[in-house]
Design goal:
The chain is an alpha+beta fold. Helix content is about 35%, strand content about 20%. It has three domains: about 10-45; about 50-130, no CATH class; about 135-185, no CATH class. The chain contains five helices and eight strands. It has a three-stranded antiparallel β-sheet, with no helix packed on it. The protein has a three-stranded mixed β-sheet with strand order 5-4-6.
Length: about 190
Amino acid sequence: MRCPFCSKLESKVVDSRPSEDGRSIRRRRECCACRRRFTTYESVENMPMMVRKRDGSFQAFDPKKILTGLLHACEKRPITLAVLENMVTDIRQVLQNRLDGEITTAQIGDMILERLKKLDEVAYIRFASVYRHFDDVDSFLEELNQLLAEQGKPRIVTAARTIESAPDREFGGGSDITHLGEEEFS
């Protein structure tokens, strides 16, 4: 390390300790030529992560955007800010451990959905409805049924607009499937 006082290259480390945030190492050095002391910081070099958007353009990765999306999806849900921040940190670490330095918005969205599915079903559906750009009710219902099937729960609604009912449900009173066609409501 070059001495900031005399510009000589030889110095020795006198003291070394982690910084307050734990993301770098603070080192006190002493120049071997002029004997003056100075401080240096050593930290891990993070590769800039670039995100390829749907339109093909690139943008620098911004974890604040993930947190904003999560806050919207989890609004009025029993999920603390700390839990969401930990989720963002986890996603950021996974991305930084990748060697290519590029990720798509689809890959980020899938990572978020994977974590939300385990955390809160309502937040998952909210996020999926924005992320997957549901064009109509049927595509929304398909996502809902997929979530229910993965949890081993019976399908409630299908894209064909049918309802599978249990014997005590108000629709159908015991039939396996009740079709909600126009003739039933006339």
